[in-house]
Design goal:
By secondary structure, the protein is of the alpha+beta class. The chain has two domains: 195 residues, no CATH class; 165 residues, 60s Ribosomal Protein L30, Chain: A, CATH 3.30.1330.60. Helices cover 61% and strands 9% of the residues. The protein contains 15 helices and six strands. The protein has a four-stranded mixed beta sheet with strand order 3-6-4-5. It has a two-stranded antiparallel sheet with strand order 1-2. Helix 2 crosses helix 3, helix 3 packs across helix 8 and helix 4 packs across helix 14. The longest helix is centred in the middle third of the chain and has 28 residues. The chain starts with a helix and ends with a strand. About 18% of the residues have low confidence.
Length: 375
């Protein structure tokens, strides 16, 4: 998105809306106006940069396709406001995407916005939280309305320069984006008002959704045993199933045998949307546990393996399994685990552990596993 288009977005918000936002968050109107531009531009820049990473690209594409954004009518906007948009799936997706886009450096991006706009550090961070779901909504609308494939989506990102300069063509971007920008400008204002007044409720909604999902995940898996408290070497206490993956991982780490030749451990509470690399909320508990274990054992390195059943082509299965393995490594990285401690590989329908001729067997073959490379 060019500077001229971002400026048009700010114009479409209107001075009264910007004034109301400024009053609500305790910032000057001038700072709010200046902060909107680098916030939207930084998100689009980061997404364009990620088109060179097939795993992240597929993750973003799956994410915007599953975003709960209906037609952007006045009724839909009113519903967003009345239902608490800050706790919506779209905001949750934005929260998960930020550390992936900026590889954990979103704080530095917020500082740049702070310096460029005069916003406070808290105001700049909130501006980033606003920009991400709005950009996701914009791209999701384009993908849906134009029935874009992954290749189309890639080209859309690559041809949207966020800064003017040699070789850039702001007028082209302006013609393509303004019809959607006008609607999203109104959505941005509504989402911002709701978010700024409901941060505590948003966090509460997210925690409740994750907790409820984790409870369902626990109930759906047999043989986990009782959940017991395990105190890690850094003092952190985890509540984990005595027969579950986390307990097996701790046993492997604490065993005196060398890491070489370690068996693969299947995640037992990790689920994805159907035919997608997008993790479901109930997966967060187990990933957080694994991240905590890795933090307690800083020498630990893991390889994440993805597997599918044999439905569909071998090529498609290989791609899906790799994308899912990549998603897990990115989620762990977003939880504070260095990427140099993680590897990922997709094996498709190879190495089946159950009979693919039955649904039960196929379900077992659709799995994510991990192997200890170093401890």
């Amino acid at each position: 998105m060019s500077n001229i288009v971002v400026s048009s977005l700010i114009d479409l918000l209107g001075p009264q809306t910007i004034s109301n936002i400024a009053a609500r968050i305790g910032e000057s109107e001038e700072s709010v106006s200046r902060g909107l531009e680098p916030a939207f531009a930084s998100i689009l820049d980061a997404m364009a940069d990620k088109t060179n990473d097939p795993g992240v690209l597929r993750y973003m594409f799956d994410m915007i396709q599953s975003a709960s954004v209906s037609s952007l009518t006045t009724a839909a906007i009113t519903n967003l406001a009345s239902s608490g948009a800050a706790g919506s799936p779209l905001f949750d997706m934005g929260r998960r995407l930020l550390p992936i886009l900026f590889e954990g450096n979103q704080g530095a991006v917020a500082e740049t916005i702070e310096r460029a706009s005069g916003l406070s550090s808290d105001g700049a961070a909130r501006m980033m939280s606003l920009a991400t779901p709005v950009v996701l909504g914009f791209l999701g609308k384009r993908v849906r309305d134009e029935r874009m494939s992954l290749s189309d989506f890639t080209r859309l990102l690559q041809r949207q320069p966020t800064m003017t300069g040699p070789g850039k063509n702001p007028a082209t971007s302006r013609r393509g984006l303004l019809p959607v920008v006008a609607v999203l400008a109104v959505v941005a204002a509504v989402l911002w008002f709701t978010q700024s007044g409901n941060d505590a409720r948003s966090e509460s909604n997210h925690v409740r959704a994750s907790t409820e999902g984790a409870t369902r995940a626990r109930a759906s898996v047999t043989g986990l045993g009782d959940f017991v408290n395990r105190r890690l070497s850094d003092g952190v206490t985890l509540s984990i199933p005595e027969n579950g993956t986390e307990s097996k991982l701790l046993s492997l780490i604490q065993d005196s045998a060398p890491a070489s030749g370690s068996a693969w451990l299947d995640f037992d509470r990790l689920t994805f949307d159907v035919a997608s690399a997008l993790l479901r909320p109930e997966s967060e508990e187990q990933l957080q546990n694994v991240a905590s274990i890795m933090k307690a054992y800083p020498n630990l390195r893991l390889k994440i393996g993805g597997y599918t059943d044999n439905v569909g082509s071998h090529k498609a299965n290989m791609r899906l399994s790799q994308n899912r393995a990549d998603t897990v490594t990115r989620e762990l990285a977003s939880m504070g685990i260095g990427v140099n401690r993680l590897e990922s590989e997709g094996y498709g329908d190879q190495h089946a552990i159950a009979d693919n001729s039955t649904e039960e067997g196929r379900a077992k073959n659709r799995r994510i596993s991990m192997r200890v490379l170093q401890k």
